TrEMBL record:
Gene3D superfamilies: 1.20.120.1460, Aldolase class I (3.20.20.70). PROSITE patterns: UPF0034. It is an enzyme of class 1 (oxidoreductase). This is tRNA-dihydrouridine(20/20a) synthase. Keywords: Flavoprotein, FMN, NADP, Oxidoreductase, RNA-binding, tRNA processing, tRNA-binding. Belongs to the Dus family. DusA subfamily. Belongs to the dus family. FMN binds at P13, M14, M15, Q66, K135, H167, N207, G208, G209, G229, R230. Residues 11-315 form the DUS-like FMN-binding domain. One of its GO terms (molecular function) is tRNA-dihydrouridine20 synthase activity. The active site is at C96. The record marks N93, K179, R182, R296, R299 as: Interacts with tRNA. The lineage of its organism: Bacteria, Pseudomonadati, Pseudomonadota, Gammaproteobacteria, Chromatiales. It comes from the Bacteria.
Amino acid sequence: MSITADLRLSVAPMMDWTDPACRYLLRLISRHTRLYTEMVPVQALWHGRAERFLAGHPAEAPVAVQLGGSDPTQLAHATALAEQWGYDEVNLNVGCPSSRVQSGRFGACLMREPELVRELVAAMREATKLPVTVKSRIGVDDDDRFDQLCRFTEQIIVGGADALIVHARKAWLHGLSPKQNRDVPPLRYETVAALKHDFADLPIVLNGGIRSLDRAAEWLGPLDGVMIGREAYHNPWLLAEADARIFGDRERPLPDRKTVALAYRDYVAAHWHARIPVTRFTRHLAGLFQGLPGARVWRRTLSEAAGRKGAGPEVIDAALAARESVISTADDVAGMAVSVR
């Protein structure tokens, strides 16, 4: 089945970041951008922890779950659970370079075992009617020849993958931290474009280093989609025009930042309780006003107020009020300056 149109723009799965609260916030900003969960270890689901790892909000859709594992039976089980829990896509992680993931024989190290990946994809394909996709690198360590990437791609196609998402850097499994692996290996967009040329019928999505809708739009055509990572987290408002510009939905009015903040406050109020630090929710809001007057006081108020004992959703109101006060004071000062002239 083809999901090409749905993959035009997405936000990458990011550990410790793209949790349900983050996804709810991003969905308030863009209706159509596809969202991904943090990587979910299939072994945890195998041992009955579906509620913890798969629970979300219906409003998050379209949303994909990313799975990490190398056991076909466990992956099939997790894939079936993902369908039961209402996800729109199941994605296999073949790109994470962390040593912890390698020790479990999954993530980027699987690129060296394309036949095993084929088996994993086939097991997932058999377990669901949902699209099954793979997220990979362009290679690992010195195994980064184009023919090796093509061999890997051939195998996931045989397994039944519906799309391939490619982080356009290779991964160094030893010598670089996961953070360094996101920046140090050079981006090789031309490799991803060449892969699409050779596998024209396979939807291919570009990931890595994309920081604006303008840059994303440049790759829509040569490729089937673009996935944005950290920039969408630190500056979520870059998604505000995505529905119109990327998906052609010009009927939905452009969202308003304050309205989004208040709607998110209502979400926090419904899900927060005294045993949960409210920072678990408010941390996702830090970049909401990035680039606008009052952004600094917004971030500072959120951080300071949310860190106090017993703080709850009201800290979002306090941060909004603090920002508006700063803006109002600045406007008054500007007005006085004009009158003096």
